[in-house]
């Protein structure tokens, strides 16, 4: 039995087996993907343990989910990326799966330190971090605080520096499990999904305590602490119908940071983006990653 140590993965075979048995909550994924996927526990700090879903072999990518949601949101694109030659690492946020750690009085810097520990322990080389929605805040914070660990940052459906008032209320309603599904669906459709896409796909998969913890962590961190994403190359992967990214703000990141930013827009998708256009997301990520210096 391997001893737990700071920054080292947990080798408890019983826990590992139990996690692997629950690795695929989505039955549509094929058996080969299930067999290739497993979990590793990383002791990120004395009081923080991070559950990492790992699959594939090759260049490491780290995927970070939206606020209040878990790494399972990436099941389909992780499978596609693994098939295209990547080792995909998906750290579960604190409070989801087997990830544990303080949930109150934390900042984005604490969450970025969790990701840095996973990179050191599992990738053991600089990586591309892909952050979806709130996850892009954590990705950018990690790149600012730990530049030696980051080859590039992909911000997926990242909100504008200032987005329209009222949208955050719809995020809160979407994740409020005490509300009727019909009310939550209205908010999901308004804030996350473009017309013609099934907002019901996100009725499940919310973790209210995690959502609140992350909301407060974001409020406790100055936007200027993380906005630049450090100095690494950046992919600004936008959804064409994302209410958090009005057309008037389309170029704000590229205008501010210039040549290190690659801007790609996926038409017909909303803020959810990943479940709406998984193939287009993967194509954009692969094309950009392969353009980066090795």
**Helical stretch count?**
11
SS strand fraction: 15-25%
What is the terminal-to-terminal distance?
36 Å
CATH topology: Rossmann fold
Strand order of the largest sheet: 1-2-3-5-4-6-7-8-9
Which spans have pLDDT < 50 for at least 5 consecutive residues? Answer: 1-31
The H-and-E topology, N to C, reads as EHHEEEHEHEHEHHHHEHEH
Q: Mean pLDDT, rounded to whole units?
A: 90
Q: How many beta strands in the DSSP annotation?
A: 9
| Count of the separate structural domains | 1
Q: Briefly, what CATH class? A: Alpha Beta
CATH architecture: 3-Layer(aba) Sandwich
Radius of gyration: 18 Å
- Gross geometry: globular
The CATH homology group name: Alpha/Beta hydrolase fold, catalytic domain
**DSSP helix fraction:** 25-40%
Largest sheet: 9 strands, mixed
Structural class: alpha/beta
Sum up the structure in keywords.
294 residues; alpha/beta; Rossmann fold; nine-stranded mixed β-sheet; 11 helices; 36% helix; globular; disordered N terminus
Helix and strand layout, with pairings?
Elements: E1 9-10, H1 13-21, H2 31-36, E2 38-45, E3 48-55, E4 59-64, H3 75-83, E5 86-91, H4 108-123, E6 127-132, H5 134-145, E7 150-156, H6 167-174, H7 181-191, H8 208-219, H9 223-226, E8 234-239, H10 252-257, E9 261-266, H11 278-289
Parallel strand pairs: 4-5, 4-6, 6-7, 7-8, 8-9
Antiparallel strand pairs: 1-2, 2-3, 3-5
Helix pairs in contact: 3-11, 4-5, 6-7
């Amino acid at each position: 039995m391997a001893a737990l140590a700071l920054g080292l993965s947990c080798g408890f075979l019983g826990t590992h087996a139990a996690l692997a048995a629950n690795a695929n909550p989505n039955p549509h994924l094929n058996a080969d993907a299930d067999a290739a996927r497993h979990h590793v526990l990383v002791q990120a700090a004395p009081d923080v343990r991070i559950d990492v879903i790992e699959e594939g072999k090759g260049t490491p990518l780290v995927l970070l989910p939206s606020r209040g949601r878990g790494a399972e949101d990436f099941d389909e694109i992780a499978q596609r990326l693994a098939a295209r030659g990547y080792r995909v690492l998906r750290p579960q946020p604190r409070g989801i799966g087997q990830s544990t750690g303080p949930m109150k009085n934390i900042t984005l810097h604490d969450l970025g330190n969790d990701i840095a520990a996973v990179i050191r322990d599992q990738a053991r080389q600089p990586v591309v971090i892909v952050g979806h929605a709130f996850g892009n805040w954590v990705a950018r914070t990690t790149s600012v605080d730990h530049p030696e660990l980051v080859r590039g940052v992909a911000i997926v459906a990242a909100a504008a520096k200032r987005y329209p008032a009222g949208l955050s209320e719809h995020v809160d309603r979407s994740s409020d499990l005490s509300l009727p599904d019909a009310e939550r669906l209205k908010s999901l459709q308004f804030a996350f999904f473009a017309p013609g896409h099934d907002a019901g796909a996100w009725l499940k998969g919310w973790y209210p305590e995690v959502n609140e913890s992350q909301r407060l962590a974001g409020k406790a961190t100055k936007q200027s602490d993380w906005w630049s994403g450090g100095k690494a190359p950046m992919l600004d992967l936008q959804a064409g119908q994302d209410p958090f990214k009005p057309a008037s703000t389309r170029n704000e990141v590229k205008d501010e940071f210039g040549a290190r930013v690659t801007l790609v827009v996926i038409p017909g998708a909303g803020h959810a983006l990943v479940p709406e256009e998984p193939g287009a997301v993967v194509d954009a990520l692969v094309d950009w990653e392969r353009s980066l210096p090795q």
